[in-house]
């Protein structure tokens, strides 16, 4: 099995399924935890050096961060519902807790808090900008939870829904060079995948120009893929819609990417004859 693929499995007693740290991933910035909680279960956290974005992928919860409490937030029971998520941003040095009120799928996204001092913020559906990218079998639907236009120290968080049979993160692009003036930023990235119906699968390839990394992975419901560098396209199998939650962070909080040279023609395809 690829070292970049973490398989879904039963949660431990605390509800933890996935736990990616800079140390475990061999990189410097992105942290990601995924919890599956039962009603009444509570998760707590807080780090003097790291900011977090708590994303309610599915379910309802009450969230406390610092001296603020947000009661009974979350109104979708599946990420495939036509609803935007609820999230809470907490800067470095702020303790937080999440108590599930229904079955809860909770993503804890983290990155180094370079500056601190930002306020705790509830990110409700009205704060999340939606857009459509691509066309035809490259169409996908975006919810920008924490884009680079919104305040944070390092985190970028976005969720993407890709219809069955479509491609996503495509044409293949990368963001692994710290060269803002040249149009590319260095961002580590995680993909947390969900399928609908859940027995489905998708394919994700992670590869570099020199093929020092070249991994093709069959991704199933609840799996997680780490992208330390390179291109990372995804294809959803026919009959199965794909959702993924992306977390990105790097030395500069801006999303700039380069499309693979040999595939740039897809950005401006010739008209059909």
UniProtKB/TrEMBL annotation:
EC number: 5.3.1.30
Alphabetized GO MF terms: 5-deoxy-D-glucuronate isomerase activity
Transmembrane domains' residue ranges: none
Keywords: Isomerase
Domain of life: Bacteria
PANTHER family: 5-DEOXY-GLUCURONATE ISOMERASE (PTHR39193:SF1)
Protein name: 5-deoxy-glucuronate isomerase
